[in-house]
């Protein structure tokens, strides 16, 4: 076996292990999420997975960005994960009266049987079965582009109105919250576009600021005092 093949095989085994080490968790609002034993962290707040997604990414992110433009809304998500942010955006799309282009990055996709245990809505499952690494039309007003790529290596070919920054926490994955990453995301943000995240740590706020975002500290969802929203104003 060539060295490169061996390396690929080891990586593949590690990926399979990461995928398997998941536990299903019912959160306080009745919606389900996952706990990753590999990363030692929940995919969402245990105070309510859907409630958290609605608060941070839909209301503070998508709807704020929709006020700034009347054309197609370009959304970028960091971490497709269980698919809740994508599903809630899909549900919101008809009300926005313009199409949504939804690009999402995920290095360790959840497998289909696991997705079925989270939510059995056919549209939720359609997001999971959609092919990776190509643009797929899910509805007349929602195009999905799931990219199986490492955020650290990702390059972007469009500007985004809103970025849902939903990585695991800085304690678990500090490399995802680094200055170079926020600079790359700032460059991929449209003028007046926003980036929202559940994290309100001072160090993260300062890194986002240094990358160019103008920061607002907003009230967080249930169980969290604050969240952050960065805006590209220049
Ligand atoms: C908090 S979860 C995302 C939850 C998701 N947004 C949802 O609505 O269900 C973080 C996700 O980031 C993914 N991830 C971890 N490292 C990554 C990397 N280097 N590049 C891209 N995604 C990564 C994890 O596999 C996980 O699915």
Structural class: alpha/beta
What is the alpha-carbon Rg in Å? 17 Å
Helix content: 25-40%
Strand content: 25-35%
Return residue spans where pLDDT drops below 50 for at least 5 consecutive residues: 1-11
Which hetero compounds are present in the coordinates?
Answer: S-adenosylmethionine
Secondary-structure element series:
HEEEHEHEHHEEEHEHEE
Q: Specify the CATH architecture.
A: 3-Layer(aba) Sandwich
Instruction: Supply the CATH class.
Output: Alpha Beta
Q: For the terminal residues, how far apart are their CA atoms?
A: 52 Å
Summarize model confidence as the mean pLDDT. Answer: 93
**CATH superfamily membership:** Vaccinia Virus protein VP39
Q: What is the number of domains?
A: 1
- What best-fitting shape do the alpha-carbon axes yield? globular
The count of β-strands is: 11
**Major sheet characteristics:** 8 strands, mixed
Briefly, what is this?
This protein has 234 residues and is an alpha/beta fold. The chain is 35% helix and 26% strand. It starts with a helix and ends with a strand.
